[in-house]
Design a protein that fits this description.
By secondary structure, the protein is an alpha+beta fold. It has one domain: Aminopeptidase, CATH 3.40.630.30. Helix 3 links the parallel strand 4 and strand 5. The radius of gyration is 15 Å and the shape is globular. The structure holds coenzyme A. Coenzyme A binds next to strand 4, helix 3 and helix 4.
Length: 145
């Protein structure tokens, strides 16, 4: 099942965030984000949340904020399935392209994005801290699919 996240989902999303990122997003930030109409967070769940994607809508651009799958369920196609649904519903909400930044050494995420059709469009040197790493900039046009 794919659903739009609510405040009731934040604890589970935070638990996936903290297992996935050295610098996880704070729950207070996520709670404030959910109050904004331009913020979208979708989750794929079975008994519990398995994978989530959040993004900000800025005019017709969807700026990906976070993507993660519970480590127990990685490599089973869940993030890809969720992304396909998110792209469908984003189109209905007037989004024509997605943008994102990813650590240039995050091979699994880059492979996921490429498998969805994202293209590399730039590199920001030393963009990330803890540890320092370049950011690969990627985008995906969805307007005329
Ligand atoms: C990146 C991440 C979200 C992928 O989630 P997932 O549910 O395991 O991904 P899926 O099983 O849907 O994989 C989809 C595609 O991604 C690629 N992929 C996923 N994991 C991969 C891995 N470990 N190695 C190589 N490719 C991988 C494959 O191309 C796969 O497509 P295929 O199965 O058709 O070959 C997950 O590894 C994760 O949560 N990582 C930590 C958080 C993170 O780095 N998020 C991205 C921040 S920008």
């Amino acid at each position: 099942m794919i659903k739009r996240c609510t405040k009731d989902d934040i604890d589970k999303i935070y638990s996936i965030e903290e297992k996935s990122f050295a610098d996880p997003m704070k729950t207070e930030t996520m709670l404030k984000d959910l109050d904004r109409d331009s913020y979208f967070c979708y989750a794929l769940s079975e008994e519990d949340i398995i994978s989530f994607i959040s993004f900000e809508k800025v005019f017709d651009e969807g700026q990906i904020i976070s993507v993660a799958t519970d480590p127990r369920y990685r490599g089973k196609g869940f993030a890809k399935k969720l992304f396909h649904e998110v792209i469908k519903s984003a189109k209905e909400n007037g989004i024509t392209f997605f943008t994102l930044e990813v650590r240039s050494n995050n091979t699994s995420a880059i492979a996921l994005y490429k498998s969805l059709g994202f293209k590399e469009v730039g590199l920001r040197k030393n963009y990330y801290q803890n540890p320092v790493c370049d950011a690969l900039l990627m985008d995906l046009q969805i307007g005329d699919e």
